[in-house]
Description:
Order of helices and strands: HEHEE
Number of strands: 3
Radius of gyration: 13 Å
Strand content: 5-15%
Largest sheet: 3 strands, mixed
Strand order of the largest sheet: 1-2-3
Low-confidence stretches: 88-108
Mean pLDDT: 78
Amino acid sequence: xxxxxxxxxxxxxxxxxxxxxxxxxxxxxxxxxxxxxxxxxxxxxxxxxxxxxxxxxxxxxxxxxxxxxxxxxxxxxxxxxxxxxxxxxxxxxxxxxxxxxxxxxxxx
Length: 108
């Protein structure tokens, strides 16, 4: 699993990108803190895939991460999209965005 951000070459204000990147970093930190409690959350994420978290609580960040993920896919990278619900900690919901996405899906 790779959590590095794919390069975004979109027409966005640099300050907006900085803010969105900071929120994405916070989301990944929260997700990884949840993984400490439940390491099995990583089982479905293929080794070497870029993990794009799609938050339910932040539509702007969700759109930004979908856009970055699709750009990475178009560049030939393996990308795993994971929808996350937030609460006391970030919880994973294994629905996967359709497309050339690696990994499986367990619908709940």
